[in-house]
Amino acid sequence: MADPGADRAAADPGAFAGPAGPRLVVKRVADVAVAALVLVLASLVLLVAAVAVRLLLGSPVLFTQQRTGRGMRHFRLLKFRTMTDARDASGRLLPDRERSCRLGRLLRRYSVDELPQLVNVLRGEMSLIGPRPLLPRYDRCYTDAELARFAVRPGITGLAQITGRNAASWDERLGLDARYVAQWSLALDARIALRTVGRVFASSGVSADPAGDMLDLDQERGMSRL
């Protein structure tokens, strides 16, 4: 099957031109150093979370899903599993809200489920700060202006997340992603990181069922799931 993201990148490679220069080297070095340090410091938390997921939810412990990254290239995002595999009489997965469990809500509340993405950072697939990576089926849905979000590595957190987290509309989120790329600086990354830490400790803006709070991007924009 053709990759619509690759098609758009090939048709207009200039659409993904983003920040350049020594500051990006500093950003990448900081990403690797901080990701490695946090993985070491949070090793006990990671172990406890992995054991809890294995005992209460079963295998697999990690949830993996294809997402679209820099240059609209696809990669496998890592997260701790936070939902059951409960299905209806026809064998279809129940809605997220019905598959949510106390452990999953706890992991999401304090963003522990996101910690495995530090491995994505070390692999070079993600950054600590940047636009959140979205599903490949959305690749056809972006406006030309919104394609700017693919000029940088996607992030574990970003400008859209500290501004509205799960409450912002798609237009707002994607507009903030494009604004982040246009205004990017190391100072901006530092401000986003500090505000993210504050939100995590306050456990604010987290939804038990993010998918139920708003339409999927392709549905909102009337795009078919190809």
Automatic annotation (TrEMBL):
Keyword presence, Chloroplast: no
This protein's source sits in the domain of life called: Bacteria
* GO molecular function ontology, one term from the record: phosphotransferase activity, for other substituted phosphate groups
Cite the Bacterial sugar transferase domain residue spans from the record: 27-201
Q: Which InterPro entries does the entry mention?
A: Bact_transf
Signal sequence span per UniProt?
none
Q: Any idea which UniProt keywords this protein has?
A: Membrane, Transmembrane, Transmembrane helix
Q: Where would you find the membrane-spanning parts of this chain? A: 32-57
Q: What does the similarity note say?
A: Belongs to the bacterial sugar transferase family.
Q: What is this protein called?
A: Bacterial sugar transferase domain-containing protein
Per the UniProt record, the source organism is Rugosimonospora africana
